[in-house]
Design a protein that fits this description.
By secondary structure, the chain is an alpha+beta fold. It is built from 4 helices and 8 strands. A hairpin with a 7-residue loop joins strand 4 and strand 5.
């Protein structure tokens, strides 16, 4: 666990997190490896885990019947994949596919939610860290919509 603790502590998402809170998160964490083409998350499935990308790149994709899959964002080292674990009914809203060999830290969502319920300070820290991610992604999606539908 010592190596995983160092990796978590050095990840940009957890920068400055209190040592006690880092230990709580560590209890929910595991190393993951995804080969190119492997899906980390599938739309509609239970959001049981989110990922901190250590190496590699992933594509966030939306599939529509009768249409080609659309990659609406790519994420890489230092970024977080998966926010649907925060909001009931805890189901993924899109697919996430490894574009190359990707190494990540998986965080068990139920484990972390339970710890946040017990320690509201930890819950507040997680919300402060996830809200900017959600805001940036919403803004990026808005810009893509303007780009797609703004051309005449």
């Amino acid at each position: 666990m010592e190596g995983l603790e160092r990796i978590l502590a050095e990840h940009p998402f957890f920068a400055g997190l209190e040592a006690g809170h880092l230990q709580l998160v560590l209890g929910c964490a595991r190393n993951c490896r995804f080969e190119e083409g492997h899906y980390l998350l599938r739309e509609g499935e239970l959001a049981i885990e989110f990922f901190l990308i250590r190496h590699g790149r992933v594509a966030l994709e939306i599939a529509a019947p009768g249409r080609k899959t659309v990659v609406f964002e790519t994420l890489g080292e230092g970024e977080i994949v998966g926010t649907s674990w925060l909001v009931p009914p805890y189901r993924w809203l899109f697919d996430v596919r490894a574009m190359e060999l990707t190494r990540a830290i998986g965080i068990d969502a139920a484990c972390l939610r339970a710890k946040c319920e017990v320690d509201h300070h930890l819950g507040y820290e997680m919300m402060k860290r996830f809200l900017p991610i959600l805001t940036r992604r919403l803004h990026a999606t808005r810009l893509q919509i303007l780009d797609v539908y703004g051309k005449r």
